[in-house]
Amino acid sequence: MFEADKLDLVYKAKKGNGKAFTKLIEENIKSIYRVAKGILSSEDDIEDAIQNTILKAYSNIKTLRKEELFKTWLIKILINECNKIYNFNKKCISLDKVIEEQYNDKYENLDLKIAVDSLPEELRLVIVLFYFEDLKISEVSEIIGIPEGTVKSRLSRAKTKISESINGKEIM
Fold it and tell me: Is 109 in the same domain as 45?
């Protein structure tokens, strides 16, 4: 597009012409994507930064002083949005990461996880509640609604079956 046409689009966009603004964004979308991709790694974050940039640019286009600097102005907004997202992500811990760490902490040994998963439901439940949820025998008894002695015997049977499974014997 010729420079005069670009300036005309910017002028029209500043006057509130939405189609002119859309055309300007379409012309610059590859550039803003490449800049965002250079700052952010997650596709979701890149999309958020671009979306926020477009919204801010549309809301504030009347503040643009020199029409010929539209692309520079747009990229400056984008960089600020990318930096906000980048800094926010540095301060936050991903829920997926927390869940993964919890899962890995509880099941570091894959053989143990497989052995526990293959237990019958009544044994698996007491193992999970007692060992993985750190509940007392009395609490497990109350939750399941069985006597404490039964909880103890199920824990004992479950530990034996887990030991047999890990040492190469099959769980019934």
Answer: no
Q: What are phi and psi of 169, to 5 degrees?
A: -90, 150
What is the domain extent for residue 82? 3-91
Q: What is the pLDDT of residues 72-125, one digit of tens each?
A: 899 999 989 988 998 888 777 655 555 555 555 444 567 777 888 788 878 888
HSE toward the beta carbon, residue 68, CA cutoff 13 A? 3
Q: How far apart are CA 154 and CA 127, in angstroms?
A: 8
> How far, CA to CA in Å, does 135 sit from each of 1, 101, 128, 141?
70, 21, 9, 10
Q: Give tens-digit pLDDT for 79-93.
A: 899 889 988 887 776
Residues 16, 87, single domain; the answer is yes
Spell out the residues 6+ positions from residue 15 whose beta carbon is closer than 8 angstroms to its own: none
Last residue of a domain, one of 67, 91, 115: 91
CB crowding 83-97: b at 16 or more within 10 Å, else e: eebeeeeeeeeeeee
Alpha carbon distance 85, 27 (integer Å): 24
Percentage of residues of the chain with pLDDT beyond 70 = 86
Last residue within a domain, chosen from 66, 91, 116 = 91
Q: Where are the beta strands (DSSP E) in the chain?
A: none
Predicted model pTM = 0.54
Could you tell me if 80 and 25 lie in one domain?
yes
